[in-house]
Input
Amino acid sequence: MTETKAWRDAWLEERSIAITIKRDRRIFITVARKGFREVLEWLVKVKGFTHMSTITGLDVGTEIEVLFHLARKGVVLSVRVLVPKDEPALPSVIDLIPGSAFYEREVHDLLGVAFHGNPDQSLLLLPDDWPSDVHPLRREWPPERIKKRLERS
Output
């Protein structure tokens, strides 16, 4: 695991809640929402993680866990950040990694996380007439409830 550990340094460890190395070349970094953008910018500009594989999200109760999956030279790094459901927003990273635009829109559609700075947060996966308050991957929107809500629209 020497290659994986070699990129770690004090700057990142000071700004992380946790750094977990699952196996060689597979790293998870948990950061606070407040410092998220700064950490991602450092990973791109200093460590060369310029490829966004995808952005995923998971409803974990009162929060949404958003994971930014980055890749560089065979190393896959996931930056994990929690956003409260009552204020589901993060800064966009499309200026750092332009390919993030569609992934941000997908997470916005399905989980309701807004990405400040993304100029296009129009619906990507859902129909144009989809209700703006219904996010199908949130726990409070099981299929039966979505069906009833759509029948009323």
Summary: Residues 2-127 form a domain with the Beta Polymerase; domain 2 fold (CATH 3.30.460.80). The longest strand covers residues 63-72.
